[in-house]
Amino acid sequence: MKSGAGVWRNLPVFVTGHTGFKGGWLALWLEELGARVHGYALGPPSQPALFDAAGIALGLASDVRADLGDLPRLKAALHEAQPEVVFHLAAQSLVRESYRDPLGTLATNIMGTANLLEAARGIASIRAIVVVTTDKVYENREWQQPYREADALGGHDPYSASKAAAEIVAASYRDSFFNARTGHSARIATARAGNVIGGGDWAIDRLIPDCLRSFALGQPVQLRFPDAVRPWQHVLEPLAGYLKLAEHLLAPDGADFARAWNFGPDAGGDATVGEVAEEIARLWGGNARVEREPASGHPHEAGLLRLDSTLARDELGWAPRWSLQHALAQTVAWQRAWKEGADMHTFGLEQIRHYLADVPA
Questions:
Q1: Contact 18, 38 (CB under 8 A)
Q2: pTM for the full model?
Q3: Lateral strand order in the sheet of 270-272
């Protein structure tokens, strides 16, 4: 089997959530690899948005704007695209939003995943499906040791619960419908990553965007849980893992890789919310300031969460390339370039090439 860029040249790929932050970066990377990218999503989730700022539409073969709940439209889009690989990233991805709209979160993340897999059952061209979830699928016991793929799933908040349920839905479809015994040989894997950062993220209630919005306005950023530990990583890190995982799923022995995978940073990527905010303030410069709010009155969020990515290192050959400090610097560099009116489509492609040129840790 061909490896690396050779796998993707002219390959039809279907990406749900391509108008979002992580999905937009994935679409841009697939463009760089020469894939024919078909997107399916609602409109960009924020204004401004990476999709518009980075000209993601320039690299798309098709761009369908529809809801995952519209099963007939989803089936039609897949039928028209005839993809060989599907990346499922469309989701309601914010913990605090899941408290405001629990039913919408559950519908999007659980039934949206089920609809995608149900629609995929009727498309014979599909050979590999990567369902992207989150590090928050684990039953969080505030352990010091990082979580492994075999640890119990759970979810305190509606977002975490919805993503844990999406994992179960994916495993159920894999066991029930996608194997040599049942007629569709596409391989399904799930991918769990930590808190991603990077240029072009304008989401509300997410640390880096909140910091950069405040600093650009000359205001201090207010931290809800400054001592919470998260596995921070640049968005290109897990995307590199998703691409490697898909390549392995396409290989003759791909069935061996149809399972759950962690793509988290090394221990150096673990840092508190306060530490990350202070570093972003330093990189931004000027009068950027960080203030710590009392935690009372805010919805529950996990205090300690780490991932063990040994499996991805050993079996996929994936490893983080960028330190947390470098990831933060690249994030600030993107935002500054956008603010100064740079061509962000070209800038984004250059950041991807820069990432690929670095030797993994």
A1: no
A2: 0.93
A3: 195-197, 229-234, 270-272
